[in-house]
Amino acid sequence: MLNEGGCLCGNIRYSFSGEPLVTAVCHCRHCQKQGGSAFSVVCAVAADGFQQQGVTRVFDDIGDSGKKVARHFCPDCGSPIVSIAEAMPDFIIVKAGTLDGFAQFTPALEAYCDGRLPWIPALVGAQQFSRSNIGDDG
Ligand SMILES: [Zn+2]
Questions:
Q1: What percent of the chain has pLDDT over 90?
Q2: What is the pLDDT of residues 96-137, one digit of tens each?
Q3: Measured in angstroms, how far is the CA atom of residue 85 from the centroid of ligand 1?
Q4: What does the pLDDT look like over 11-44, one tens digit per residue?
Q5: In the beta sheet, which residues pair with residue 85?
Q6: Rounded distance from Cα 56 to ligand 1 centre (Å)
Q7: 135 lies in a domain?
Q8: What is the CA(45)–ligand 1 centre distance, in A?
Q9: Where are any strands of DSSP class E within the chain?
Q10: Is residue 138 part of a domain?
Q11: Measured in angstroms, how far is the CA atom of residue 55 from the centroid of ligand 1?
């Protein structure tokens, strides 16, 4: 199965094959800042099945682990597209809100629940982690 997505203006498009390793909600402060919202939804996908058209700009962030997290975004419309964490080199962390088929990806876990806003209830059926889940800071 080929999954496709892209930014708001359409200048960045991407695809990946197969199922994500995991779909997760992240409540960390960095995701709140970058997305301008309460949390981010991300899919960790195999790096070797990921392809991108268009050139993103990159903000080199530092994750909780102290390692680099390259946050890629569209330079024209600002949509966050992917994060690439030094701690997780075999995976691309896709910002799931940019997926064409976003609704079909259900989060299996929530990371950084310590940062969860008080008006957001825990997601039923998802595993909750107070901080990181898979060793990254997507
Ligand atoms: Zn764009």
A1: 90
A2: 999 999 999 999 999 999 999 999 999 999 999 998 765 444
A3: 22
A4: 999 999 999 999 999 999 999 999 999 999 999 9
A5: 69
A6: 9
A7: no
A8: 21
A9: 2-6, 13-17, 22-26, 40-46, 50-53, 57-62, 68-73, 80-85, 91-95, 109-111, 127-128
A10: no
A11: 10
Q: How far is the CA of 7 from the centre of ligand 1 (A)?
A: 5
Q: Is residue 136 part of a domain?
A: no
Domain membership flag for residue 39: yes
Which CATH number fits the domain that encloses residue 13? Answer: 3.90.1590.10
Q: Provide the domain limits for residue 37.
A: 2-128
Structure tokens belonging to residue 124: 């039923």
* Number of domain units in the chain: 1
Q: How far is the CA of 114 from the centre of ligand 1 (A)?
A: 31
Q: Calculate how far, in angstroms, residue 10's C-alpha sits from the geometric centre of ligand 1.
A: 5
Angle CA 66–136–47, to nearest 5: 120
State in Å: Cα 94 to ligand 1 middle: 15
CA atoms of 73 and 80, how far apart (whole Å): 4
CA of 72 to the centre of ligand 1 (A): 11
